[in-house]
Design brief:
About 60% of the residues are buried. Helix 9 packs across helix 28. The protein has 29 helices and 33 strands. A 6-stranded mixed beta sheet has the order 5-4-17-16-15-6. Strands 24-32-29-31-30-33 form a 6-stranded mixed beta barrel. It has 3 domains: about 290 residues, Rossmann fold, CATH 3.40.50; about 210 residues, Dimethylsulfoxide Reductase, domain 2 (3-Layer(aba) Sandwich), CATH 3.40.228; about 110 residues, Barwin-like endoglucanases (Beta Barrel). The protein is of the alpha/beta class and about 775 residues long.
C-alpha cells in the first residue's frame, strides 16, 4: 500500500475478491506495470508526433478538439462535456487527429512507383503511413497501378456503371467517421438509386445493442448521459476496454470513484485502464506518480460466460428478496414491465453448479457482487463488444437489462444501460437513415419530401454483403471510409471475390488494404478530414455528429486541406449521385453541397422530434440532447412496457468446445483504432513488437506443452468444411482464463466464420471463436 494516496487505500480495501486482487498481475505473464494515462500516455503521443510530423497548427486543432465551436474527434464516440477540460482529448484521440494531419503525402508519384501487387506485401501500418491521399485515382489493370484521373471523369464513369447494375446488387458501406449530413445524403442516394443495402461498421460491433435494446426497452441506444456518472453508486463493466477504446471515460470514472462510487469489471482480460489511472491533466498526479484504483474487483469471466454470471447476480437478488423483502423494486416492475414471473421462475430453476461452470466464477463472488448491487441506490451497466460479439450476444445484453430492471435502474438519474460505441458517429449514422431495415426509417416521409417511391425490401448487413460477394449476388461496392476488406470476418474467403465485382469505389483519406482489392472497374477517391476546412460556395461548412449519449455536436474544421485536389465527402457523394440518377426537382445536390445547413434542414424535416431547431442548436456546449423515451419510462415496445426476457442458454458461445478446442477472443491494441494500426506498442498490456502473437495462460501452456516464444498456428474448429488457418503466431504467456486464447483484430479475422454470428443481429462473433492450436 506504500505510495498510494489515502483515498485509494479506501477504494482498495473494499475489494470483493480481496485486497491483493486489485493490483495483482501474474508475474509469469506479460503485463503493464504502470497506471493507464500518466507519462506512458505522453510518451506514446510524442512518438506519434515525431513519426507523423504534423504542421504546428495541429496543436491548435487539439486544443479545440471536442469543444463547442471546435473539431469533434474522429476517434471514439464518448460524450463531450458541457464544461470541457483544457485538453479535452485522450491519447488515442490525439493519435487519430495527428494521423489525419500528417505531413506525408500519397499522390500520383507514389502510385507510379508501386504496383498493387507490390503494395499487397506491405503491412497495414505501412500502407496508412504512406500519407494522405491527394488525387482521384483509377485502377489500370494492364499495369497493376492506380493512375491519376479527374473528378468529372470519375463521376461520369461510376454513374454510367451504376446505371447498368441492378440496384439490389450494389452496396453502399459507411464507416463510423462520416458526419450526420454525409450519412443522410448517402442513405438518400442509396434509396433514390433503389436499394437499402446500407451496411456500416455498427453491423460489426453494436448491431447487437440496437436489436436487443429495441426489443426490450423500445430504444436502440443506451439510456445514460454524462451527468449520470456524477451521481451513480455502482458501475458494472462488462467486456469493455476503457483504457484503449475510450480513454476520456477514465476522467469521469476517476471522479466517481473518488466520491465513493464502486466499479466492478467482468472481463476475461484484466485491462489496465480499469486497474489504475494517473490523470495526465493533473500536474500533481503527474509529478508524484500517484494513481487512482478504478475497479475494486476484476472478475475474469470465461468467454461467453456473461449470461451465466448475470444469471447468478439476478438469482441471488431474487433469493434475497424472498428472504427479507423490499430488495427489488416491485412498484416499478408491476407498473412498467412485463415477463417478470417467467424470468423469476427460470432464475430460481438455474443451478449454481451450472452458473459456476459456464461463468468460471465462484458463486460466493457473484453473491458478493449481487449484495453490493442491492445496497446501491443508483447503478449503471456499461458494456462493450465483449458482450455484443457473440453468437448469443443479444442475450448477453438482455441479461444486463434484466439485472437493471430488477431495481428500476434504467430510467432514473444516475442509472441506465450504457453501451460504449467505437467510431465517433457510428450511432448518429443509424439515427439519420443508415440502416438496412426499412421499418427503422421514415420512408413515407422521404417519399413525400423527394417525390419518389423508396425501396421497401430489407437490405444487406455486413455479413450478408460478404456472403453476397462469395455467391456473386453483389456486383458493386461503394465504401464511404473504413477498411471493409480487413474489418470483416472470413477475410481469406472474401478476398478472392473482390476482383469479380463490376465496380469498387473507395472514398478515403489514407491507403489501406481494401484499396488493394480492385474490381473490374475501381476508383480511389480522396477526401478531406474532419479537422480540415471544408470550403463550399456559401463559405466554410460545419458538420455534426452524435455521441454515445445521444447528444448532437457541431464540428468545424480549420486546417488547410492536405491538397487542393481534395473534395469533401458530401461533394463526392453528390457528384456520383448526379451522374447516376435521373434529374429530380426535389433533389438538389448542388445546393446541398454548397450549404450544409440545408442538409440539416432536411434532417430536421425528416426527424422533427429529434432535430428541432437543428441549425440554431448546432454548437450547444456539451451538445444538444435528442432525447430517449426509455429514460422517461416511455417504452416503445409492442406491450408498452419494458420486458424481462429469460435466456434460453447460459453460454453466449454457439456451442460447447470440443476436444482440444479453445475459445479465441480478438483484441485491439493500445496502438490502434479499429483497423488503423498506429504502431506496434500495446503498452497497456505490456506487449511490444510483432502483432503476430497468440496470448495463452501459463496454465494452459503447461497443459499443452507450449513454451513462450514458440511459433504455432491457430485453426478454426468449425464444421463447414472450410479450412481457416493463421500461422506464424508466437506464444505469449498472458493472464487469461483457461481454455481461452487471445489474438489481435484484424489479423485473426480470417479465423472467424461468416456464419458464426449473433442469431438475432448478425453481428460477427469475434469474441467467441472455437480454435485449435497447431504446433
Amino acid at each position: 500500500m506504500a505510495g498510494l494516496p489515502p483515498s485509494e487505500e479506501v477504494h482498495r480495501s473494499g475489494s470483493i475478491t480481496g485486497e491483493d486482487e486489485v493490483l495483482r498481475q501474474r508475474k509469469d505473464t506479460q503485463h503493464y506495470r504502470h497506471p493507464a494515462g500518466g507519462w506512458g500516455s505522453v510518451a506514446s503521443l510524442a512518438r506519434i508526433l515525431f513519426d507523423q510530423r504534423p504542421s504546428p497548427a495541429a496543436l491548435a486543432t487539439l486544443l479545440s478538439q471536442n469543444k463547442a465551436g471546435g473539431h469533434m474527434c474522429t476517434s471514439c464516440a464518448f460524450g463531450k462535456p458541457h464544461n470541457p477540460n483544457t485538453f479535452e482529448f485522450c491519447e488515442n484521440g490525439a493519435k487519430a487527429t495527428i494521423w489525419d494531419l500528417t505531413s506525408d503525402r500519397c499522390g500520383p508519384d507514389f502510385f507510379e512507383k508501386y504496383s498493387l501487387t507490390a503494395l499487397s506485401k506491405w503491412s497495414d501500418h505501412d500502407l496508412e503511413k504512406a500519407g494522405r491521399l491527394t488525387h482521384p485515382m483509377r485502377y489500370d489493370h494492364a499495369t497493376d497501378h492506380y493512375v491519376p484521373t479527374t473528378w468529372d471523369a470519375a463521376f461520369v464513369s461510376i454513374g454510367r456503371t451504376l446505371r447498368m447494375i441492378d440496384p439490389e446488387a450494389a452496396v453502399f458501406y459507411t464507416s463510423g467517421r462520416a458526419s450526420l449530413e454525409t450519412a443522410y445524403l448517402f442513405a438518400l442516394f442509396a434509396r433514390l438509386y433503389g436499394h437499402n443495402n446500407l451496411p456500416d461498421s455498427s453491423n460489426m460491433c453494436h448491431e447487437t445493442t440496437s436489436v436487443a435494446l429495441k426489443a426490450q426497452i423500445g430504444t436502440p441506444v443506451g439510456t445514460c448521459t454524462l451527468p449520470d456518472f456524477e451521481t451513480c453508486d455502482l458501475i458494472l463493466f462488462f467486456g469493455q476496454n476503457t483504457g484503449t477504446n475510450s480513454p476520456r471515460f477514465l476522467h469521469p470514472l476517476q471522479q466517481a470513484v473518488r466520491r465513493g462510487c464502486k466499479v466492478i469489471s467482468f472481463n476475461p482480460v484484466r485491462e489496465a485502464g480499469l486497474i489504475r489511472f494517473t490523470n495526465p491533466q493533473s500536474p500533481i498526479e503527474m509529478a508524484t506518480g500517484s494513481a487512482t484504483i478504478i475497479a475494486e474487483s476484476h472478475l475474469q469471466v470465461r468467454p461467453g460466460g456473461d449470461i451465466a454470471a448475470l444469471t447468478g447476480l439476478c438469482k441471488h437478488i431474487l433469493d434475497l428478496d424472498i428472504e427479507r423483502g423490499g430488495v427489488i423494486d416491485r412498484t416499478f416492475i408491476e407498473s412498467d414491465t412485463q415477463g417478470f414471473d417467467r424470468f423469476t421462475v427460470q432464475m430460481h430453476a438455474t443451478s449454481w453448479n451450472d452458473i459456476e461452470r459456464e461463468s468460471g466464477l465462484p458463486a460466493a463472488v457473484l453473491k458478493s457482487v449481487a449484495d453490493l448491487y442491492t445496497r446501491s441506490e443508483r447503478v449503471i451497466g456499461v458494456y462493450g463488444m465483449g458482450l455484443t460479439q457473440h453468437v448469443h450476444g443479444s442475450q448477453n445484453v438482455k441479461m444486463l437489462v434484466n439485472l437493471l430492471l430488477l431495481r428500476g435502474n434504467i430510467s432514473r438519474a444516475g442509472t441506465g444501460i450504457c453501451p460504449v460505441r467505437g467510431h465517433s458517429n457510428v450511432q448518429g449514422q443509424r439515427t439519420v437513415g443508415i440502416s438496412e431495415k426499412p421499418d427503422l426509417v421514415p420512408l413515407d416521409r422521404l417519399a413525400l419530401m423527394f417525390g419518389f417511391d423508396p425501396p421497401r425490401k430489407e437490405g444487406r448487413t455486413t455479413v450478408k454483403v460478404a456472403e453476397g460477394m462469395i455467391d456473386g449476388s453483389v456486383r458493386a461496392f461503394l465504401g464511404l471510409g473504413g477498411n471493409f476488406a480487413r474489418a470483416i470476418p472470413d477475410v481469406a474467403r472474401v478476398d478472392e471475390t473482390w476482383s469479380k465485382l463490376d465496380l469498387t469505389v473507395q472514398i478515403a483519406t489514407k491507403l489501406n488494404r481494401s484499396h488493394l482489392m480492385p474490381g473490374r472497374e475501381a476508383w480511389l477517391l480522396p477526401c478531406i478530414v474532419r479537422a480540415e476546412c471544408d470550403e463550399q460556395s456559401s463559405g466554410p461548412q460545419a458538420v455534426s455528429i452524435e455521441d454515445s449519449f445521444s447528444h448532437i455536436h457541431g464540428s468545424l474544421g480549420r486546417r488547410t486541406p492536405a491538397h487542393p485536389m481534395l473534395k469533401s465527402e458530401i461533394s463526392i457523394i453528390s457528384g456520383i449521385a448526379k451522374a447516376t440518377l435521373q434529374p429530380n426537382p426535389n433533389v438538389k445536390w448542388d445546393e446541398w453541397t454548397g450549404d450544409y445547413s440545408l442538409v440539416r434542414d432536411l434532417i430536421e424535416q425528416t426527424y422533427p422530434n429529434w432535430f428541432a431547431d437543428f441549425n440554431d442548436r448546432l454548437f450547444t456546449p456539451g451538445g444538444f440532447y435528442r432525447g430517449n423515451p426509455a429514460r422517461e419510462r416511455t417504452w416503445h415496445t409492442p406491450s408498452g412496457r419494458a420486458l424481462f426476457e429469460a435466456p434460453d442458454v447460459l453460454s453466449a458461445l454457439g456451442s460447447p468446445l470440443k476436444g482440444a478446442a479453445l475459445t479465441m477472443i480478438t483484441l485491439r491494441s493500445n496502438d490502434q483504432f479499429n483497423t488503423t494500426i498506429y504502431g506496434f506498442d500495446d503498452r497497456l498490456r505490456g506487449l511490444k513488437g510483432s502483432r503476430d502473437i497468440v496470448l495463452v495462460s501459463p496454465d494452459e501452456m503447461a497443459t499443452r506443452g507450449l513454451v513462450a516464444g514458440q511459433l504455432v498456428a491457430l485453426e478454426t474448429d468449425h464444421d463447414d468444411g472450410v479450412i481457416r488457418r493463421v500461422a506464424g503466431l508466437r506464444v505469449t504467456p498472458y493472464d487469461l482464463p483457461r481454455a481461452c486464447v487471445g489474438a489481435y483484430y484484424p489479423e485473426a479475422n480470417a479465423l472467424v466464420p461468416l456464419d458464426l454470428r449473433d442469431v438475432d443481429a448478425n453481428t460477427p462473433a469475434y469474441k467467441g471463436v472455437p480454435v485449435r492450436i497447431v504446433v
